[in-house]
Amino acid sequence: MKGQSEYMFLASASRSTNMDRYIKDFLKRKPDGVIVQASCQAEVVHEIIMVFSFVPLVFSIWAGDVAVF
């Protein structure tokens, strides 16, 4: 890629490898899937927040004025 040196590619690969090792070690110590559970919970919370973010818009249509909210 233009503008990226060989050092940047090696540093990125090294970080990725180190993170893989860290995660594999963590999962060996705690095999109950805590990471997966936390990721799923975060995804559910994100979806709920996204849905609730439209509530003021819906009520502003019902009330007839955006300034109400």
List keywords for this structure.
single chain; 69 residues; mainly alpha; 0% strand
What does this structure look like?
The chain is mainly α. Helix content is 75%, strand content 0%. It contains three helices and no strands. The protein starts with 5 loop residues before the first helix and ends in a 6-residue tail after the last helix. The model has no long low-confidence stretch (mean pLDDT 78).
**Helical stretch count?**
3
Mean of residue pLDDT values: 78
Main beta-sheet annotation? none
**Range of strand content:** under 5%
What string gives the helices and strands in order?
HHH
CA-CA gap between termini: 48 Å
Alpha carbon gyration radius: 22 Å
How would you sum up the global shape? elongated
Number of strands: 0
Q: State the helicity in percent bands.
A: over 70%
Could you name the ranges where pLDDT drops below 50 across 5 or more consecutive residues? none
Helix/strand-derived class?
Answer: mainly alpha
